[in-house]
Design goal:
The protein has 134 residues and is an all-alpha fold. It is 51% helix and 0% strand.
């Protein structure tokens, strides 16, 4: 015959649930802090380097892979984002983490002839840069 749960263990579960439901570091903004803009050359350098490395590691030789690796070899990266596109550093970090987390199969969709852009990397949607509504 099993014993009914003690009140002390129920209380522990309630306290644990409160801590587990709290926001994680980085999920909350800083008080009146200004978000720093994402630097295009640094972002594109990191993204293209990561894509070239992943292309090689996953065995892809698509046009997108060749272009990324060529840009890395030449050190030629876009110097700005499209007009009206003003991502912040956090946007770039989230995008890079998303690319890094892709399996080789999913990464193939990113570098295919008809690439699928991860949602986390679509911080400059075409409609926003053409004056349309976001």
């Amino acid at each position: 015959m099993s014993k009914p749960p003690q009140r002390r263990s129920i209380g522990f579960v309630i306290v644990l649930a409160c801590f587990a439901a709290a926001p994680t570091a980085g999920d909350i903004g800083s008080c009146n802090g200004k978000a720093d803009p994402l630097g295009a050359p640094a972002f594109f350098s990191a993204r293209l380097s990561m894509e070239c490395d992943r292309c090689n590691a996953c065995g892809y030789d698509s046009r997108a892979c060749r272009l990324a690796c060529d840009d890395v070899k030449r050190g030629s990266y876009p110097q700005s984002f499209p007009a009206g596109c003003n991502p912040v550093i956090h946007d770039g970090e989230v995008c890079l983490h998303a690319i890094e987390a892709l399996s080789c199969g999913a990464f193939g969709d990113l570098v295919s002839d008809a690439p699928i852009v991860p949602t986390e990397c679509d911080f400059c949607p075409a409609s926003a840069t053409k004056g349309g509504s976001p």
